[in-house]
Write a structure and sequence with these properties.
The complex is a heterodimer.
Chain A lengths: L1 H22 L4 H7 L2 H30 L3 H5 L1 H5 L4 H10 L5 E6 L5 H11 L4 E2 L7 E5 L15 E4 L2 E5 L5
Parallel strand pairs in A: 1-2, 1-3
Antiparallel strand pairs in A: 3-5, 4-5
Chain B lengths: L1 H24 L6 H28 L6 H22 L15 H7 L2 H24 L7 H16 L5 H4 L14 H13 L7 H20 L5 H13 L1 H7 L5 H21 L2 H15 L3 H21 L4 H24 L14 H6 L4 H12 L2 H4 L2 H15 L3 H24 L4 H12 L1 H23 L3 H5 L18
The chains are: A alpha/beta, B mainly alpha.
């Protein structure tokens, strides 16, 4: 409905411009051309306030962005999602190039969200299914306490944040 | 130093490749004076051509490296030069051979249009610099921006091939593996040039895409619209919060919209003037639109469908040229689609089911909420500064006044079909509707909104020209490539 009202309003404005031009004795074709004044005028009126607001916002964004370190910028997506990005950095230090991993997430975080961010932060190491991963990453989820089924003992970052290497991994 | 400057050098190479493309089309003559106004369009055409070529090469297994990138750029420039040289020898424009004049005398002789362009360059140039300084420190914190786009760019930077362990692996299904690769490939070019992955600095190059859009749009409408028409509209677009805030979120929606709008503009120029060069340009830009995101595929389809309807009903002699362009667009997107099919990757949208009446009827309760949400976004004039209602006014005025009706019908048809495809996609989507709308509708209307921007610019210019006379440029001389032999479309509309 608002869209219809807005379009109707501008059509009425165009019609008024046309009628005023006709009343002033302008030929019909040129009077239609006068309707072009409406978009130009509307755009012209909107430039100044929006230019000021946009420039102010951009300057504020720059001030905020300049304060972000390279390190923080690298992980800001995960931080914004409330994830433990330090744990993932710690994990990455323990993985070799080419090692694959699988994330097992629990707790209050959306497991899909944890998986998405973890796979982004740990790139270029690739995620794969649990049975084939070189590493299992337990994110807010208890790992098996003892070595079982081809898995080594967990390496603990903090309770619930642990990684386990497959013993038969290359 | 390399990390800061090399990505801009890559932009320069993309620009060169685009100039090659424009020379090949015959859109820009090889003269210094003619090049400057065309640089924005050249950058976007270069990005389109090089990225499309790299995607095709990746799909057949050619490694994606900086050397491959440089070779593709070289090929574009060489092809452009060869075709342009065969077409006609370079000629100096009037006045180019004459001795340079004293600058202040030139200023005194400037017509009002040139002063307006000068004022626009100063204001927009200042704004562009402020935007660039802000963009280069923006953090990559938008979910889709990192999970869909930057993720693929990072992989294309770390690996030089389409690794099936990522692009076709079940573990990465969430990243919309079926989405086309133009935007990640373009980002990866910059990461590779920098020698590192700087997710803040990439925003600066995304900002350049928008600066190039404004530049290119002014270039494409300059023959019909005087600066008094296009300068205020483009400045309003530049400062519209819906445009620049979304652009700097690093999502793909505004890049998609940029290509779609310019593709529509080029197509509309062909429908009106019948120059083959415009049709070739439209095909390149629409192929790029369809290669940014699946929504771009729908937008390019909408623009092609509307153009097809206009051609069928107004000049069937142009059907052959139109079909050739449509086929070229399809061929350009095929390599990626073939790679996807070969690796068993499919999207989550049930497109074939979505064409079955029974399926659509079963999901008809999703239509009304989708229509309401889409229209609410389109009516948010705090974001879009009345571009859609202004487009409606321009279309109605042209139709009633009999000014370029063919072009007006084309924009109307493109907009309506694009709107319908948005409603249709929300109707058939397997995702929970409320969540899907809340996380995407503010972004996906960008393509439609940029179509409106193209319509406002083009039709307002045509309307004003009908009564007040065309721009000085179009009065002075026909546009490059406007020879009888290069015409391949409908004659000028009534």
């Amino acid at each position: 409905m608002p869209l219809l009202v807005q379009a109707a309003g501008l059509l009425v404005a165009g019609a008024l411009v046309f009628l005023m031009a006709r009343q002033a004795g302008v030929p019909t074709r040129r009077s239609f051309a006068a309707v072009a004044v409406v978009p130009v005028a509307v755009a012209g009126m909107l430039i100044a306030p929006n230019l000021r607001n946009s420039v102010d916002s951009m300057r504020a964004n720059r001030a905020a962005g300049k304060g972000i370190s390279d390190e923080k910028a690298r992980t800001i997506g995960g931080t914004a999602a409330g994830l433990d990005v330090e744990f993932l950095d710690w994990t990455r230090e323990r993985m070799a190039d080419g090692d694959t991993f699988h994330v097992v997430a629990g707790g209050s975080q959306d497991p899909g969200g944890v998986d998405q961010w973890a796979t982004f932060q740990l790139a270029p190491n690739l995620a794969t299914d649990r049975a084939n991963a070189d590493w299992l990453i337990f994110y807010d989820h208890a790992a098996p306490k003892r070595p079982t089924g081809g898995l080594a003992a967990p390496i603990v970052y903090s309770p619930g944040f642990e990684i386990v290497r497959r013993t038969d991994a290359g | 130093m390399r990390a800061d400057l090399a990505p801009f050098a890559a932009d320069g190479l993309l620009l060169l490749a685009g100039l090659g493309g424009l020379w090949a089309c015959g859109l820009v003559p090889r003269r210094a004076r003619a090049l400057l106004p065309a640089l924005g369009l050249a950058y976007l055409v270069g990005t389109a051509l090089v990225s499309l070529a790299l995607i095709a090469l990746l799909a057949i297994g050619v490694p994606f490296t900086l050397v491959t990138f440089a070779l593709v750029v070289l090929a574009c420039v060489a092809v452009g030069l060869v075709i342009d040289r065969r077409r006609s020898p370079p000629t100096a424009s009037p006045g180019e051979d004459s001795p340079p004049r004293v600058p202040w005398r030139q200023l005194r002789d400037w017509p009002s249009d040139r002063w307006l362009v000068g004022g626009f360059v100063v204001v927009f140039g200042g704004y562009a610099i402020v935007g660039l300084l802000s963009a280069v420190v923006m953090p990559l914190d938008q979910w889709d921006a990192w999970t869909m786009w930057a993720r693929k760019a990072v992989m294309l930077t770390q690996y030089d091939a389409l690794m099936s362990g990522f692009f076709a692996a079940p573990s990465y299904e969430f990243s919309h593996q079926d989405y086309p690769l133009l935007y990640p490939v373009w980002q990866a070019i910059h990461f590779r040039a920098a020698g590192e992955i700087d997710t803040q600095a990439i925003h600066g190059h995304i900002w350049l895409l928008f600066v190039a859009f404004v530049w290119a749009a002014a270039y494409l409408v300059r023959e019909v619209a005087r600066p008094i028409v296009w300068a205020p509209v483009l400045l309003a677009v530049a400062v519209a919060p819906g445009v620049w805030t979304q652009l700097l979120s690093a999502n793909a929606d505004i890049p998609l919209a940029i290509y779609g709008a310019l593709g529509a503009l080029a197509m509309a120029r062909w429908l009106r003037d019948g120059r083959r060069a415009d049709l070739v340009l439209a095909a390149i830009l629409l192929a790029a639109t369809a290669s940014v995101k699946n929504e771009g595929l729908a937008l390019a389809g909408a623009i092609l469908a509307a153009a097809g309807i206009v051609v069928v009903f107004s000049n069937r002699r142009a059907l052959g040229a139109y079909l050739a362009a449509a086929v070229a667009v399809v061929v350009a997107i095929l390599p990626w689609q073939i790679w996807l099919a070969a690796h068993g990757v499919s999207g989550d949208m049930p497109v074939s089911k979505g064409l079955q009446p029974g399926f659509l009827i079963d999901r008809s309760e999703r239509v009304q909420p989708a229509v309401t949400a889409i229209n609410q976004q389109l009516a948010d004039q705090g974001l879009w500064l009345y571009m859609l209602p202004l487009a409606v006014l321009a279309i109605v005025a042209c139709l009633v006044a009999g000014v370029s009706r063919r072009v007006a019908v084309f924009y109307l048809g493109s907009g309506l079909i694009a709107w319908l495809t948005l409603v249709w996609s929300y109707t058939i989507s397997p995702l929970e509707l409320g969540w899907h709308l809340s996380t995407s509708v503010n972004r996906v209307v960008s393509g439609l909104m940029f179509l409106c921007i193209a319509a406002v610019l083009h039709l307002t210019g045509l309307l004003a020209a009908a009564g007040l006379g065309p721009s000085a440029r179009s009065r002075r001389a026909p546009a490059p490539g406007t020879t009888q032999s290069s015409r391949a479309g409908p004659p000028p509309a009534a």
